[in-house]
Design goal:
The structure is a single chain. This protein is 39% helix and 21% strand. By secondary structure, it is α/β, with parallel strands linked by helices. The chain has helices spanning 11-23, 34-44, 60-68, 84-93, 105-115, 153-163, 172-179, 188-202, and strands at 3-7, 27-31, 48-51, 75-79, 97-100, 127-130, 133-136, 141-144, 169-171, 212-215, 219-222. Helix 2 (34-44) runs parallel beside helix 3 (60-68) and helix 6 crosses helix 8 (188-202). It folds into two domains: 3-115, Rossmann fold; 127-222, Arc Repressor Mutant, subunit A (Orthogonal Bundle), CATH 1.10.10.10. It is globular and about 50 Å long. Strand 3, helix 3 (60-68) and strand 4 (75-79) form a beta-alpha-beta unit.
């Protein structure tokens, strides 16, 4: 069974998510604040964390950073913060996805399935050079002459799809379906946000990318 840690200080949300996740055969742990969440994660080793940012003791962004110091498990943010700055901060800290409250349980379940999906391939994935960074996709490791950026799980998946098709146009629909699943085939704004983060982290000049190229209205291309 997949084990999920729900971190939220609203008892009604904890209860609703526990009922819905257990009904779908997920194993569920819960925490009402950041300290309890960090202890539970270290003790029970969940497969995924659903995390509210507005916790009573530790800000959710700091919880993400503390988790990322020792574990790569997927983190899905479930928060009432709707400003783009909060979303960017959470993604930069290491979150894999972000859902705003109020939310649909079905959407959350779809995001959980998508964020835990792996791109399966028997072929080795090459290391590639992007700006000052050597990106090893096989073990998701980056070597750099500068500060080493942290990529979220979604960013790694996007990059892998593009790198497996060097020089070729990969459509927006293909990227959305391969990384997020078929229900996200039209979420182009979501894709643009993640590509923007990738360029900012990897390209020498994100405003004039040399490797992660946009083909307007069509898709993206990895140029070696």
């Amino acid at each position: 069974m997949t084990r999920i840690l729900i971190v939220d200080d609203e008892p009604q949300i904890i209860r609703a998510l526990r009922i819905n996740l257990q009904a779908r055969r997920y194993e569920v742990d819960t925490a009402a604040d950041g300290a309890e969440a960090l202890h539970s994660a270290a003790t029970h080793h969940p497969d995924l964390v659903v995390l509210d940012l507005g916790l009573p003791d530790i800000d959710g962004i700091e919880v993400i950073r503390k988790l990322r110091a020792w574990t790569p498990i997927p983190i899905v943010i479930l928060s009432g913060r709707m400003d783009s700055g909060g979303k960017v901060d959470a993604l930069d800290a290491g979150a894999d996805d972000y859902i705003t409250k109020p939310f649909s349980v079905e959407e959350l379940l779809a995001r959980i399935r998508a964020v835990t999906r792996r791109l399966v391939s028997s072929d080795p994935v090459p290391a590639v050079q992007i700006g000052r960074h050597t990106v090893n996709l096989a073990d998701r490791r980056i070597e750099s002459t500068d500060e080493i950026p942290h990529l979220t799980r979604i960013e790694w998946q996007l990059l892998e799809v593009l790198v497996r098709n060097p020089g070729k146009l990969v459509s927006q629909r293909q990227l959305l379906q391969e990384v997020w699943g078929p229900t996200y085939a039209t979420e182009t704004q979501y894709l643009r946000q993640y590509m923007k983060h990738l360029r900012r982290k990897l390209e020498d000049d994100p405003a004039r990318p040399r490797h992660l190229i946009t083909e307007p209205g069509m898709g993206y291309r990895f140029q070696p």
